[in-house]
Amino acid sequence: MKLTYKQTEKKPENSFLARQDRMPCIEQDWHFHKELELIYFIKSTGTRYVGNSIGNFGPGELYLIGSNVPHLFRNDREYYADKLESEAVDLVVVKFDPDFLGTGFKDLTEAKKLLTLFQVANKGIKFSKAAAYLVHNHILGLVGNQGLSSIVGLLNILDILSISENYTTLCLEAISNTFSQNEKDRMARIISYLNENFENKIELDEVAAIACMTPNAFCRYFKKRTHKSFTQYLNEIRLRHACKLLIEGEMQVATICFQSGFNTLTNFNRQFKALMKITPSEYMEKYNQREEVV
């Protein structure tokens, strides 16, 4: 997996791109692009990597990713099996340049909240499901729309989101992609290795070797680039996978612990509570209660 720059996908005659993708699984690399990107998941689950943030994603979730912010949405492993529903993934992607209405538009008094939204998007934004519900029909209406009404539709969506306070930022600080090409390739190799091997024991030495560094140099490098220690970042990948298994409710907590790459149940419980603020058993119970209500 490499960190790649994606050229614009919009047609020359259009000012932005809006499309609906229905497919068996999401096939993409860790990437970035100049355009801001709205991603609305109608049907899909998996793990998201936005800047230095790691988390799960699911149906009904809406994200806004800022210009040049590295990101990857990867489905759960079962999506990549041979026999899978042809439309297991259903999502809408909207990509637009920060100045898609001209350089002077953001200077207008009426556009101040929109400019703030674009700046916050450099941390990655996850909107609440209530906010996503408000723009659900508007986002679907963009797909296939043409002419001035399509621009009005996008502005309507951005206006609703710019005044919404129902969102969380994914990173603690704004992310700008200023890596050299060698750094991009190195970070991509590291993240790819962790994503593919987190269930197994991973030694610091082997990851440092992938980065062509000594362990001490690697630890300093990784902390500088992600603002997280290597152990913290790896534990977050493991814990997000554990969250998925706990929600599914098909395994015991101890089994989930070991299948997520932890060696002891004590350490798993401690790390889980530190990140999620509740124990694994409480997390599982919370989602079971939610399903019973539904």
From TrEMBL:
<dbReference type="InterPro" id="IPR011051">
    <property type="entry name" value="RmlC_Cupin_sf"/>
</dbReference>
<feature type="domain" description="HTH araC/xylS-type">
    <location>
        <begin position="188"/>
        <end position="286"/>
    </location>
</feature>
<dbReference type="InterPro" id="IPR018060">
    <property type="entry name" value="HTH_AraC"/>
</dbReference>
<dbReference type="GO" id="GO:0043565">
    <property type="term" value="F:sequence-specific DNA binding"/>
</dbReference>
<dbReference type="InterPro" id="IPR009057">
    <property type="entry name" value="Homeodomain-like_sf"/>
</dbReference>
<keyword id="KW-0804">Transcription</keyword>
<dbReference type="Pfam" id="PF12833">
    <property type="entry name" value="HTH_18"/>
</dbReference>
<keyword id="KW-0805">Transcription regulation</keyword>
<dbReference type="GO" id="GO:0003700">
    <property type="term" value="F:DNA-binding transcription factor activity"/>
</dbReference>
<dbReference type="InterPro" id="IPR014710">
    <property type="entry name" value="RmlC-like_jellyroll"/>
</dbReference>
<protein>
    <submittedName>
        <fullName>AraC-type DNA-binding protein</fullName>
    </submittedName>
</protein>
<keyword id="KW-0238">DNA-binding</keyword>
<dbReference type="InterPro" id="IPR018062">
    <property type="entry name" value="HTH_AraC-typ_CS"/>
</dbReference>
